[in-house]
Write a structure and sequence with these properties.
Helix content: over 70%
Structural class: mainly alpha
Distance between the termini: 27 Å
Strand content: under 5%
Number of helices: 13
Shape: globular
Number of strands: 0
Order of helices and strands: HHHHHHHHHHHHH
Length: about 250
């Protein structure tokens, strides 16, 4: 019950700020334009790529996807410490883990709400075309499963960045840089091909692009699932540790 109260508080705080509506507006425009562009390209020539595979594979998908996490998470802890409202949480009969997990769950809920309207694109396209060519159900399930896994991981990174500072902008920068480094680490595997195959194999394990491409084909690989869940737990543990340190110092 305490966790649900905290979770409800976090979700409500998103919609009490105009930034939530701004993020949703521009995010859905960017994602919608990406979907329309994929459909246009597929209509221009025969292809074996489904709409869902194309949707999850363009640079216009990855740009808004990566940039939303700093915006979602930058205020989670930093604003509480800056405004002094963290004192209320510290004196309440709740555990530190409940605070951390409720903030994580609140951000994840908002993230899921951002993506839910995009399902309408595929439903409408399927209704208009009257064909399964619009998308393969397994491909759609795989793509959105990877969206959830990546979202959990990057939100946990954002939580960790936010707990390090009182400044939201600094938290956003730390989160953005960390996420981009993790993301481009996977891409670096392609450049390491002629240098060291073993290094390339290790780096490929971090490749969000490869993981998304695999899941968007309807292939559910357990390795990325274990990786992203483990990394989510790791960053939430780090967040909990630094939250405790800052709490006792304040």
């Amino acid at each position: 019950m305490k966790f649900l109260t905290l979770w409800n508080r976090e979700v409500a705080s998103f919609f009490q700020s105009p930034i939530a509506y701004v993020v949703m507006f521009f995010f859905l425009i960017a994602v919608g334009w990406n979907f329309q562009m994929v459909v246009t390209i597929i209509n221009m020539q025969p292809t074996e790529v489904t709409v869902s595979q194309g949707f999850f594979g363009t640079i216009f998908f990855w740009l808004p996807f990566l940039l939303i996490f700093p915006l979602i998470t930058m205020r989670l802890f930093s604003e509480e410490f800056k405004m002094g409202t963290i004192e209320t949480l510290m004196t309440a009969p709740i555990s530190d883990w409940q605070v951390v997990l409720s903030k994580f769950a609140g951000a994840l809920t908002f993230y899921v709400m951002l993506w839910l309207p995009t399902l309408i694109y595929f439903v409408v396209f399927r209704w208009i075309t009257k064909s399964d060519v619009a998308y393969f159900p397994g491909s759609l399930i795989g793509g959105y499963t990877m969206l959830l896994l990546l979202g959990m991981f990057y939100i946990a990174v954002g939580c960790f960045a936010s707990v390090l500072t009182d400044n939201q902008i600094v938290a956003a920068v730390i989160s953005c840089v960390t996420i981009l480094l993790l993301f481009f680490a996977g891409i670096a595997g392609g450049f390491a091909l002629d240098v060291n195959q073993s290094l390339r194999n290790i780096v490929d394990y971090f490749s969000a692009i490869d993981h998304m491409a695999t899941f968007a084909k309807g292939i559910i690989d357990s390795r990325p699932i274990v990786f992203y869940l483990s990394m989510t737990v790791l960053f939430l543990t780090l967040t909990h540790h630094f939250f405790q340190r800052r709490k006792w110092k304040s």
